[in-house]
């Protein structure tokens, strides 16, 4: 089974917790604007394999386990891939706006706040600064 480790700050200091939800993400990051799983797609995996991976992420979120393990953290999967055509193919196999797509070339060329993230319902930009509490 796939396994991921989470570093947790407790009263006794830092410790690791094993998280098994069916996928091993390439990374999980926290940044000024939220949190995200990272997937790097070099175009070598068949689209149905990636569809299953996306479905597993969404099932993890919808089960409530993500919220229990990462309370208050935004659920998002950022997929870096090779071409706009690949993005179009991958968008065909996911039905959620929780999975965002961008080409590697575009990501390294632009700032994090650039609106180059593709989702089913449009473009999104990641916030590079923390959200202010109201």
Brief summary:
The protein has 134 residues and is an alpha/beta fold. The protein has helices spanning 47-62, 65-69, 84-91, 104-109; strands at residues 4-10, 13-19, 27-31, 34-40, 77-81, 99-103, 117-119, 122-124.
CATH architecture: 3-Layer(aba) Sandwich
Look at the helices and sheets and give the structural class.
alpha/beta
Output the CATH topology: type ii restriction endonuclease, domain 2
- Tell me the major beta sheet: 4 strands, mixed
Query: Which stretches are poorly predicted, pLDDT < 50 over at least 5 residues?
Result: 12-16, 130-134
Helix content: 25-40%
- Our estimate of the beta-strand percent is 25-35%
Strand order of the largest sheet: 3-4-5-6
* CATH H-level homologous superfamily name: type ii restriction endonuclease, domain 2
Distance between the termini: 42 Å
Number of helices: 4
Give the tally of structural domains.
1
Overall 3D form: globular
CATH class: Alpha Beta
Q: Spell the H/E element sequence.
A: EEEEHHEHEHEE
